[in-house]
Amino acid sequence: MADVNRVKSLFVLNIIFFFTLIGPTKSLEVIRDSELEIFTNDIIEKLLVDSSIEAEDISIYFINSKQVNAFVTGGTNIFINTELIIQANDYREYTAVIAHELAHILGGHVFRTSEEISNISGKAMPIYLLGIIGLISGATEAGFAGVMVGQAAVTDTFTYYSRTQEAAADQKAVSIMCNSMIDASYLASFLEILEVSMPNIDSKVENYRSTHPSPENRINWIQLALNDYENCNFKKDEVLERRFNLLKAKLFGFTHSYDETKAVYGSKDDQDLYANAVSSYLNGDHKKSTENLKTLIENNKNNPFFKELIGEIFFVNQKYDQAVYYQRDAMNDLNLDNDIYMMMLGNYLLSTEEKEKVNESIGYLKKSIQINSRNAYSWYLLAKAYAYMDNISFANYATAERYFLIGEKMLSYDFASKAIKGIEENTPEWYRTYDLIEILKKEVSTNTN
After folding, report:
1. Which three-class secondary structure string do you get for 85-144?
2. Which of 329, 379, 384, 380 is nearest to 352 (CA)?
3. Phi and psi at residue 78, in whole multiples of 5°?
4. Helix or strand or coil: residue 47?
5. Could you count the other beta carbons within 10 Å of the beta carbon of residue 49?
6. How far apart (Å, rounded) are the C-alpha atoms in residues 444 and 409?
7. Which CATH class is domain 238-389?
8. Of 125, 211, 371, 396, which is the most buried if we count CB atoms within 10 A?
């Protein structure tokens, strides 16, 4: 039982942290997960195939919340609550919500808030690594959020949409879906789910009903728009549906209790095994979770996400070679540059404390940062790896980058000033360190006067 509690404690300390909203009682827990991000990006690419903007122009943030909601801020930033995905019965309902939010972006709608998000695109967003346990092996976790996340101020109330904007967005969403050969009637069906599941919900609670006009009105708008698209009843994409059901199961296992998960996912289907593998993992039953995952891997030899999760279990149990093996296999199956996967492999190799593997980890962590330079935790791990290899100047440089991302300007300046003394001139690291010093010099000078 002590080991179970230790693992659960690691999960809480190393994984969960909060992106606090302005206001004493609210918090916004933003999560990152490769499976969730990749699936959603694939949907966005389908929806934007004939658009003037690219999928890369859209930033998606996922909120761990039991409230069903989605909203747009800052021009091209879409926020989606995990429970919205769980409540959708079909990938096309989830797609419809994304299409609706994209319609707001494409329409250039300006939303009313009590205060706009402050420079959200220029700051490192919080990173909650869904399912990665014990990322700091043996380290103290005090201030973990400060290590890994950027700081941003978000309003204490979500975006509220005007009736005109909502009608326009619903009609545009129908057009987007039909032109992408996706049945747009699923936008109406999702709203019908909300009407049934939340008929009397308090309008003061931020959710899809309180931040949008009533589902009844919106369904009418959607039906009117569908009249212009008589041949929009396209068939289901079975591959996307299977991926969506597995993703839903995973999210359910992570965000709902062990007993709830067993009750909802009680069969031996792949999605049920997946949900219970996740739930068992978080409940400390690693043996059961591993058994389920091995069955899933046997049945789905090219699914990277099952291998990722079993690798994490081996990592938590300090079986680093097995963790590295499964993470490499997952990356081969994914066949896609992904900053989280690069970071995970770098961390596993670093944790072995074998010089050759630590040196290899530096390459993966640098690739993670090349893909996503705002991944503050990759900078932390890179500093740790450099320090292990006695490259203190580069360790100081990586630490300066991390502190810059999380808004610790004085510390960033101090470490950059130390780093530049030992970095060879005219190298990329030297130029970047010099830039950091110049960027921070004025601000540091102001603060010390």
Report:
1. HHHCCCHHHHHHHHHHHHHHHHCCCCCECCCCCCCHHHCCCCCCECCCCCCCCCCCCCCH
2. 384
3. -110, 130
4. helix
5. 12
6. 7
7. mainly alpha
8. 396
Q: Could you report the per-residue pLDDT of 241-278, keeping only the tens digit for each?
A: 999 999 999 999 999 999 999 999 999 999 999 999 99
Q: Domain extents for the chain?
A: 2-226, 238-389, 391-449
Among 211, 235, 250, smallest CA distance to 100 is for: 211
For 342, counting Cβ atoms within 10 Å of its Cβ (0-12 exposed, 13-18 middle, 19+ buried), the class is: buried
Contact 95, 124 (CB under 8 A): no
CA 76, CA 239: separation in Å to the nearest integer?
A: 28
Q: What is the pTM of this model?
A: 0.81
pLDDT in tens, 197-246: 654 444 444 455 445 566 677 888 888 888 888 889 999 999 999 999 99
Q: What's the token pair of residue 104?
A: 């707001």
| 8 Å CB contact between 173 and 179 | no
Beta bridge partners of 70: 80
Cα–Cα dist 161/443, whole Å: 38
Helix/strand/coil for 71: strand
Amino acid at 331: M
Q: What angle is formed at CA 19 by the lines to CA 386 and CA 197, rounded to 5 degrees?
A: 135
